[in-house]
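Reading a protein record of the kind used here takes only a little practice. The integers have meaning only within a learned vocabulary of local backbone shapes. With that in mind, consider the following protein and its fold in token form:
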Amino acid sequence: MMQAPKAPMAPLLDPAHVTDSLTLEADYTTITFYEDRGFQGRCYECSSDCPNLQTYFSRCNSIRVDSGCWMLYERPNYQGYQYFLRRGDYPDYQQWMGFSDSIRSCRLIPQHSGTYRMRIYERDDFRGQMSEITDDCLSLQDRFHLSEIHSLNVLEGCWVLYEMPSYRGRQYLLRPGEYRRYLDWGAMNAKITFYEDRGFQGRCYECSSDCPNLQTYFSRCNSIRVDSGCWMLYERPNYQGYQYFLRRGDYPDYQQWMGFSDSIRSCCLIPQTASHRLRLYEREDHKGLMMELSEDCSCIQDRFHLSEVRSFHVLEGCWVLYELPNYRGRQYLLRPQEYRRYHDWGAVDAKAGSLRRVVDLY
């Protein structure tokens, strides 16, 4: 079996140091995004939170942080991969441990001049072994003999949680508050296994995160086992082509996921949220009749007397739109953002048969 490298759930913590004297004395904070490497190309200077940076630049290959501590996000509305940056120059996206040149939103981390304090727990809902931290921790495994954390209580200051020791891997901003399970801070413990042959036979590949190109791991995909998480699979590399929504379960052949062929070339892990809400409109640009949904809808025609939807505004959670009623036909992943016309979600027409929340039912 070929296996993607897996990391412990949360083996280290780092308090976000937002108390440097230059930032505290400054009247404002600034971060500058550049489209090209080495601080070249079109740029945009920002001094506060921004939920959607797409109108200011199309890509981000270098960043200069003049003051403040920032959390950057791969997607709009503070979704996707997170990257913690403090004052300094970042001439290319590898310098901030980026996976691509996509930066779509940013958040200024509140300054804190006092002490830092948090409690970590080995089980959900603040159960099991508890340890208190007041300073940086390079490795939770070495210090507390923990390879996983299932709940947190941040008492003072903001912290950055890293997936791997030595401040590496996926990052999560932790503000003061209670986090009863790892989903609360946006982490996921997911696994999907692709098999070349039907019935979970032949060469296989195990994956635990987004992958824009699966072609190097297998030539065809005829069965899939999802152990945890909710996934969107794509017929072509770079999240293109037909989409297939899968959650925990066994899929012994590609008809089970409504596949058109044995071609699966990319996949993404869908973030989990506690609540879901979207608005659908009968006309483009959020015009005409508007309906709001917060639960699954097996038939849009029966419920709202609409056979077509021409724009969406996804307010909370991720959804899957199906072309036909009863969760059949072509599928489209809808993330929290505005969709002003059907081309925005990748469709070729405005057909809308049913809508389903992305929820791991197990």
Notes: Confidence is low (pLDDT under 50) at residues 1-12, 14-26. The longest helix spans residues 21-25.
